[in-house]
Amino acid sequence: MDFSEAINDRHSVRAYIDKPIDGETLRLLNGYIEECNREGGLHIQPVLDEPQAFGGTMARYGKFSGVKNYLALVAPKTEDFDEKIGYFGEKIVLYAQTLGLNTCWVAATYKKVKSAYLVDEGEKLGVVIALGYGQTQGKPHKNKAVEKIADINGAPEWFSNGVRAAMLAPTALNQQKFKFTLCDGNRVKAEAGAGFYTKIDLGIAKCHFEIGAGKENFNWE
Ligand SMILES: Cc1cc2nc3c(=O)[nH]c(=O)nc-3n(C[C@H](O)[C@H](O)[C@H](O)COP(=O)(O)O)c2cc1C
Fold first, then answer.
1. For 57-103, what is each residue's pLDDT tens digit?
2. Atom 29 of ligand 1, residue of closest alpha carbon
3. Residue 206 falls within a domain, yes or no?
4. Do 80 and 88 form a contact (C-beta atoms < 8 A)?
5. Which of 71, 105, 109, 197 best tests ligand 1's pocket when mutated (most atoms within 8 Å of CB)?
6. Residue 108 and residue 15 in one domain
7. CATH code at 172?
8. Position in ligand 1 atom list of the atom nearest CA 200
9. Which domain holds residue 24?
10. Given 22, 88, 104, 117, which residue has the most CB atoms within 10 angstroms?
11. Mutate which of 9, 106, 112, 127 to test ligand 1's pocket (most atoms within 8 Å of Cβ)?
12. Is the CB–ligand 1 distance for residue 15 below 6 Å?
């Protein structure tokens, strides 16, 4: 499975079976996390076999069950913190999908267990991503009308493909508050709407757009 297939197959999964992530899968996942951390200057960490974060009332309220593994999205407190953890976090989500794992981005419905991950000076935890083998593969989310996200009339195929991939991206409360505009030539402007977590959502959507459009076809404005 490649990243484009992972975009189609990925849905948020909140209920997991009681099965540890197997050794080879974990080795590959850790290698990819390290790569993303190096490229983005981040400190994303896998937290394994830690049932407390998703063991309380918040997680039950969010309909989570069986979550024992998650990614702690820790990074230096920079101005682009949100967009960056969105972008690289989603790369890891899609890679995890290619390895047969399921995921769910989680900003609110969990409890912070501070002893489970490292936050160095000048860093902070953004959100977490639940990780494991799902009871199901989840289901597709409802989409906004494409016109609310981009004007694809007469646009080149790569642009429409990028927009379609972005519309499959996870967003907080499925809000899809992002917009893509094709500027002259091959430049694309991506903008976040107002509201909670919209900058994380934008980073996630840009990750999907690049995969759908093909990075070689355009530059970000
Ligand atoms: C930044 C962010 C935060 C999220 N926080 C939560 C959360 O606290 N609880 C939850 O159940 N789902 C959370 N989600 C998952 C969204 O509800 C989900 O991505 C959205 O409904 C779209 O569905 P899909 O991921 O299956 O495509 C979050 C997603 C994102 C991107």
1. 888 888 999 999 999 999 999 999 999 999 999 999 999 999 999 99
2. 172
3. yes
4. no
5. 105
6. yes
7. 3.40.109.30
8. 1
9. 3-132
10. 104
11. 106
12. no
Domain presence at residue 156: yes
In the reported structure, the alpha carbon of residue 106 is separated from the centroid of ligand 1 by a whole-number distance in angstroms of 6
State in Å: Cα 201 to ligand 1 middle: 10
**Whole-structure pTM value:** 0.98
Tokens representing 149 are 């996200």
Residues with pLDDT less than 50, the chain: none
Q: Which two tokens stand for residue 179?
A: 């917009």
Q: Tokens 């975009």, residue?
A: 7
Q: Assess whether 150 and 45 both reside in one domain.
A: no
Phi, psi (degrees; rounded to nearest 5) at 188: -125, 130
CATH number for the domain harbouring residue 77: 3.40.109.10
Strand stretches in 80-154, DSSP E: 102-106, 123-132
Residue 220 lies in a domain: no
pLDDT number for residue 184: 84
Structure tokens at 31: 């290698």
Find out whether 72 and 117 touch, Cβ atoms under 8 Å. Answer: yes
Residues 109 and 46 in one domain: yes
Q: Find the 62 Cα to ligand 1 centroid distance in Å.
A: 10
pLDDT value at position 106?
Answer: 98
Sheet holding 178-182, edge to edge: 178-182, 187-192, 219-220
Taking phi over 0 as left and psi of -120 to 50 as alpha, with beta for the rest, 41 belongs to: left
Number of domains in the chain: 2
Q: Is the minimum distance from the CB of 138 to ligand 1 under 6 angstroms?
A: yes
Question: What is the whole-number distance in angstroms between the Cα of residue 11 and the centre of ligand 1?
Answer: 9
